[in-house]
Design goal:
alpha/beta, Aspartate Aminotransferase, domain 2, 13 helices, pyridoxal phosphate
């Protein structure tokens, strides 16, 4: 069997450990807290749960193929035309569609190093040349991106807030960067954690889309809206590009329950507000307590903290697992002395601090 030769070096995406894996592998009997995958500790909106219950008897029917109702709700949320919204099976599907539409073998994709691993995986699968621009002071190095652009550059991926550091860009520096880029280069601003930004000076991708810059803004229902298990996300973009992506995507790409749950979650402003409040309070608490323990958490505009440990972090990661606390080692991201810790419920955050106190 002959397959594309550049696929041989691809490796599966390394997901974080699940609660069931840790319980099975370590034989733990007590509570296990997952603070590794940046999920919503409050769970889904009660309105989303009720909406899914109302549609359970209809799962023998195909969902709405156009995702029109959800696209219209999102368009109202961002004050956009619905024709500028593409809904996907997670924002990863929109990423995949963008690469399929814009990138040919030998074209270039630019991303930070490190960054969200799926940019590299999807680009490499399409035969693209992946160019990595190292972070500067834990932030996207915009001047480095400009220097790396060539006539073959098609897409620049900016996860914003950045994953795994939680860093952000100011509005003025983002605008200057976009103005300096060649017109044919598309910038994908991945705002998976956009709902957690609390600094008004931070750039928001939709601002630049409305002003005509060549950007796509990605968002997801997996984080702030607590629907990670349903896999639903979306992209905001020019009408022409949205038309192409909707033409090449799979029909019925977002399942029935995901569509109705996402619409309900979008309307539950109280749940989103409580999610933001518990996240911001948790960030402040963990930043103070981890600093007190001699660790160095970086400022974050997301729902997680990047924590410099000053020692190999793998041993801390394993020790926390044995305490029933799942965090994320940053060794695969090139930071062997760092952990990424998701904000949990107050009792989960306290359990983490207490366990680290014992371990350290």
């Amino acid at each position: 069997m002959r397959y594309k030769p550049w696929l041989a070096s691809l490796k599966p995406y390394p997901p974080g450990k699940s609660l069931e894996e840790v319980r099975r592998e370590l034989g733990l009997q007590g509570p296990i807290y997952k603070l590794a995958s940046n999920e919503n500790p409050l769970g889904p909106s009660p309105l989303a749960i009720e909406a899914m219950k109302a549609y359970l008897s209809q799962v023998h029917r195909y969902p709405e193929a156009s995702n029109r109702e959800l696209a219209e709700a999102l368009a109202r949320r961002f004050d956009l035309d619905p024709e500028k919204v593409v809904v996907g099976n997670g924002s990863n599907e929109v990423l995949d569609l963008l690469i399929k539409a814009l990138v040919s073998p030998g074209d270039e994709i630019l991303m930070s190093e490190p960054s969200f691993l799926m940019y590299e995986k999807l680009g490499a699968a399409a035969g693209a040349r992946i160019k990595r621009v190292p972070l500067r002071n834990y932030r996207h190095h915009l001047e480095g991106f400009l220097a790396a652009c060539t006539p073959r550059t098609r897409i620049i991926f900016l996860d914003h807030p950045h994953n795994p550091t939680g860093s952000v860009l100011g509005r003025e520096e983002m605008e200057a960067f976009l103005k300096a880029l060649p017109e044919e280069v598309l910038v994908v601003i991945d705002e998976a954690y956009g709902e957690f930004i609390r600094d008004p000076g931070v750039a928001q991708g939709v601002e630049f889309l409305k002003r005509g810059f060549p950007v796509v803004v990605l968002r997801t229902f997996s984080k702030a809206y607590g629907l990670a298990g349903l896999r639903v996300g979306y992209g905001l973009m020019s009408e022409d590009l949205a038309r192409i992506l909707n033409a090449i995507r799979q029909p019925f790409n977002v399942n029935l329950l995901a569509q109705v749950a996402a619409r309900a979650a979008l309307s539950d402003h109280d749940h989103l507000r409580r999610t933001q409040e518990i996240t911001w309070q948790g960030l402040d608490y963990l930043t103070g307590e981890l600093s007190r323990l001699g660790l160095k958490p970086l400022p974050s505009q997301s729902n997680f903290l990047f924590v410099e440990c000053g020692r190999p972090a793998e041993s801390l990661y394993q020790a926390l697992l044995r305490e029933g606390l799942i965090v994320r080692s940053m060794e695969a991201y090139g930071f062997p002395e760092a952990l990424r810790i998701s904000v949990g419920l107050p009792e989960e955050n306290r359990a983490l601090v207490e366990a680290l106190g014992r371990i350290l």
